[in-house]
Structure formats: C-alpha cells, structure tokens
Amino acid sequence: MIEVKDLTKRYPGRTAVNGLTFSVGRGEVVGFLGPNGAGKSTTMRILSSFMPATSGTARVAGFDVFHQADEVRRRIGYMPENNPLHLDMRVREYLKFRARLKGLGWRRSRERVDTVLRQCGLIDVERRIIGQLSKGYRQRVGLADALVHEPDLVILDEPTIGLDPNQIRAVRALIKEVGRSHTVLLSTHILSEVEMTCNRVLILNRGTIIAADTTENLERHLSLDGQVVAEIAAPLAQVREAFRDLPGVARIDVSEAEGAYVRLALTPKEGEDLRPLVFEQVRQNGWMLRELTRSRHSLEDIFVHLTRGRKEELL
Amino acid sequence: MAVFLALVRRELGVAFNSLTGYVVVAVVLLLSGCSLVDIVTKLNGGREAGPVVGLFYRSLYFWLILLPLPAVITMRSFAAERSSGTYESLMTTPVGDWQVVLSKYAGAMLFYALAWLPLLAVLAVLRQVTHQEAFLELRATVGAYLGIGLIGSTFIAMGCFASSLTRSQLVACMLSFLMTIGLWVIGLGPAISEGADATASRLLTHVSVLRHMDDFAAGILDSRHIVFHVTGTLLFLFFTVRVVEGRRWK
Fold first, then answer.
1. Does A49 touch chain B (CB under 8 A)?
2. Nearest CA to CA, how far is B51 from chain A (Å)?
3. CA dihedral for A132, A137, A143, A148, sign (positive or negative)
4. Contact: B17, A88; criterion CB under 8 Å
5. Does A84 contact B6 at a Cβ distance shorter than 8 Å?
6. Residue A48 touches partner B, C-beta closer than 8 Å
C-alpha cells in the first residue's frame, strides 16, 4: 500500500526526514513512533501529497505522491495533527461537505455520512455545532472525515493527543475497529498506543528509521537478557547451591531480603525463560516463594534504549 | 462543478455562521443610511450642480464602503484556513488549486454583491422623496452596479492574493487595503497634477477608479474600463493560484 524509498525532506538549515525507506502492506496497522520532531508529521504530509519531498520517492496504492497527487488524495483519508475542523459547522453538514470535496455524489455522500456517523458513534451529536463538542467527539469527527470516502489507506497524525484517558480509550477502540477493514498508518509518541493498536511499528528518530518490526518481535528481541527475579524463604547458601550448576544460567546473584527471604536474580544464557526452573527447585526443596518475575522490556524501554543510544552515538 | 459549488457554499456559510457577516452588512447599511442623509442635506442646500445621481458616487460614504469592504470580506479566505490548519485538510482532498481560488473569489463576490443590495433601497427612497427619475433609472442603476461589481472584483482578487500570502487575517486585511487604496490614490493623480505631464496624466486617468465609477454611474459602458477590471481580476487570481501552488510545493 505504501512504498517509500530514500525519502528526504530538507528545510533551510534542517533535515526533517533523512533517507527514509519502508513499506506498508495492505491491511496492516502500522505505528509511526518517535519523539517530537522526529519527522513523523513531515513524512505523513508527504504521503498525503500535501508537500513534496526534497528527494526520494513515495508511492501510495501504486501512485506517485508527487506526480499523481490527485489519485493519491482520492485513496487516502488523512487526519492532520491537531485535527483541524470547521468549528462553525454542524457535524453532519461538515461530513457532507467533506464527502462532496472528496468527489462523492449527492446520494452517495448521504449514504456514506450516515455510515460513518454510525461507525464513529456520532449519531447523537450529528446536529450539534462542532465547536461546541468535546475534544473526544471532535476527534471522532476527524476520524469520520478521514473515512467518509472509503479510502484504501487511513493516515492519522497523533489521533489521541490532548484527550483525557476515557476519550483516549474510546478513540483507540475506534482506530482498532478501523484497522480491521483499512490499512492504517498512525503516528504517536505515546508508546502504549502503538502496543495496543498496531501490529507493526516503525521507530523514527531524527528523520531516520532506527527500528522496524512487529511489536512482539521488538519486545522479544530486546528481552533476550530477560532476568528472572525470585524471593525465596530459605538459607542464602542453600539457594546459591541449588541454582549454581543449572544449565542455561549465565549469572547468579543472591542477596539478603527482608525477613527470612533471600532475593535471587538469574540471568539466562540464551533468552531462555528460567521461571519454570526456579519454581521446580523451590518445590523440590519445599521452600516458600513470594515473588517470581521475569523482567520484560516494554516498548517504552526499547524506545528509550534506541533513541538514547542513537543520541549518544551522535554525540 | 459540484465540488466548486460545495466550496462556494462553504465560503458563504463562513460569513453567516458567525457574527462577522452580519456585522459587515450592518455597517454597510449604516454607511448607506449616512450617505442618504448626506445627499438629502446637499439637495436641500441646492448648491450641487450636475447630475443628482452623481452625488451618491462622489460622497465620502460611498468610498468608505467600496474601499475597505473587499479587504474585510477576503481577509479570512486563505489566512484563516492556514492559521486554523483546515488548509491542510482542504489541500489533501482531490480539489484543484484553481477550484479553491475561484471558489474563494466567487464566495467573496457573492457576499460583496449581497452587501450592496441596501443601496437599491437608498436609491428607491431618494426617488420616492425627490420625485427625480434619475435615482433608480434603469440605465444608470445597471451601470452603477456594473461599476461597483467590476471595481469590487479587482479589489476582491487583490484581497484573495493578499490573504494567500499570510497566516494573519489582520496582515491580509491591511495588505489588501493598502493595494486598494493605492489604486484609488493613483486614480486621484489627474485631479491633483493638473497641467503636469500630459502623457502621465492620461495614463493615470485610465487607471482611475473614480473616473471609471463616474462613467459607469452615468450609464456609459466603456469597454476600456471593463477590460481593465477584468484583466486586473484575472491577473490577481492568477497570482493567487501561483502562491497556492508555490506553498504546496515548497
């Protein structure tokens, strides 16, 4: 659906996007993740034919975003950053206006507006003036606008920014639903959003992609050193003895914890999950166990690791 | 065409969905009323020579409407969309640059025409009161409206151009007003520089909107004036399209 090759965008004195290459297949929900100023919005603006790239190519549904801009625009539903809407219009009136702009006929636009109003839960507010709606509802109007002409690709630039937790949940649920029938590219700097809504993530920093994989793969990849921590009620020496010669354990660390407990930290050799092993030892020795955890890198750790690592490299 | 009509409707909607449109119409109405009082006072004084209908177009109030009105109407056309961000959502739909510019121009022209309707009432009242056929005489009225329309058309195209250059409505308004006043002041040239260089004076006469209005109000449809304003309109609309395209591909 999206093919981007060596995409570069330079502003005077600043390179916003630097040699970006990636592709997004039909039906995927891809998250564009990066700190503020990483080049997410610029890339999205280029993909939606709002601005041209300095060099490189980008194709959406097989059409070049620069040379076949109209074809591209017909096929994308784009919700810009901060979701700009005509605040003086009523919800239905606005969506109908947008549908007409996107080339839908009178009858078709009416049908589609009805559909997206229902899909985005806007039926109750269809006659309200957009300026009087809550931010959560406005965001839904923006989404409905992006969907009204049945685009092949939906591009959402920071769709949940500025919303309260309840509104965020509602909008995310909506995006998830949209993702079932559309290809979605969404940008965010909120990591949990990507974890929750996307099946693939592109991490962007300073205009380049520093990681691209499925969310599970990324987590697995960085969880290789997944340390297991256990708190066991047993003499320290016995615990050390019991775990010392176990296969798959690279490092063992035992220390006193509060009360009768000792704290055991095991580092695996090859990403092995040592938790069953620990439990088995505890059971065999008849000890008490009050905690057993495996440190799991969240996307947040990965993100911090990657972006900070890059910064240090650059320095 | 359907897209163009949707855009024009939207432009008119902007004016009347908020107070702005009503305030503008109210101010125009007030100024028309003032000019009515002014004319009646002058007629009572009996000092005015020449065609009575000319009184209206020579009055200060007439120009107080005609000069700032296009700037006020067009200031938001591009500037407001750019500052609110809706410009981005507009320009990512499959709508052509010409379509956008022409719809903004057409919307502004329609509103401008609407704002001038009270003038008809003023003329009707004068005709009723003075029993002078000259007020609201068909030829002169059509001529006057054509003049107001053509001059306004140039000014509105200038306003669209000014609005396309900036994000700030205030800057757009001032820039557009500056261009409008500039053209008007140039037109005053022949009156001020009497006896000066004949060629320059003749040239200034051609671009004098005062002179154009005089002719139109007298029912004279001079093709030179028409060509001047039509080309002026097209030129500034062309500039606007260029700016819109330029911003898109920056």
1. yes
2. 46
3. negative
4. yes
5. no
6. yes
Contacts of A42 (CB under 8 A, 6+ apart): A9, A16, A17, A51, A207
CB contact under 8 A, B248 and A50: yes
How far is residue A280 from each of residues A229, A236, A250, measured CA to CA in Å? 14, 18, 18
Q: Write down how long chain B is.
A: 250
Q: Which residues in B lie closer than 8 A to residue A51 (C-beta atoms)? A: 248-250
Complex-level ipTM: 0.85
The secondary element (H helix, E strand) that includes residue B216 is helix B209-217
Is A84's CB within 8 Å of B85's CB? yes
A156 Rama sector, left if φ>0, alpha if ψ -120 to 50, beta otherwise: beta
Q: What is the rounded distance in angstroms from the CA atom of residue A7 to the CA atom of residue A207?
A: 10
Q: Which of A70, A89, A145 sits opposite B17 (nearest CB)?
A: A89
Domains and CATH numbers, chain A: 2-221 (3.40.50.300), 224-294 (3.30.70.100)
A268-277 long-range contacts, CB within 8 A, separation 24+: A268/A225, A268/A226, A268/A227, A268/A228, A270/A224, A271/A220, A271/A223, A271/A224, A271/A225, A271/A226, A272/A248, A273/A226, A273/A228, A274/A228, A274/A248, A274/A249, A275/A228, A277/A246, A277/A248
Cβ-contact B234, B158 below 8 angstroms? no
CA separation for the pair A281, B137 (Å, rounded): 109
B241-250: b (≥16 Cβ within 10 Å) or e = bebbeebeee
Structure-token pair, residue B192: 């001020």
Number of residues that make up chain A: 315
What range does the domain containing B232 cover?
A: 2-248
- Digit-by-digit pLDDT tens for chain A (315 residues) are 889 999 999 888 888 888 889 888 888 899 988 877 888 889 999 999 888 889 999 999 899 988 888 899 999 999 998 899 999 999 999 999 999 999 899 899 999 999 999 988 899 999 999 999 998 899 999 999 999 999 999 999 988 887 888 888 888 888 888 888 889 999 887 777 787 888 888 888 888 888 888 877 776 665 556 778 899 998 888 888 888 877 778 888 888 888 889 998 888 877 678 888 889 889 998 999 999 988 765 666 666 767 665 444 443
Per the structure, how many domains does chain B have? 1
Q: Residues A125, A133: contact at Cβ < 8 Å? A: yes
Across the interface, whether the CB atoms of B86 and A86 are under 8 A apart is answered yes
B199 and chain A: CB distance < 8 Å anywhere?
A: no
Crossing angle for the helix pair B97-115 and B117-130, nearest 10 degrees? 20
The CA distance from A96 to the nearest CA of chain B, in Å, is 9
Query: Are B86 and A85 an interchain contact pair (Cβ–Cβ within 8 Å)?
Result: yes
Determine contact, residues B139/B190, Cβ cutoff 8 Å.
no
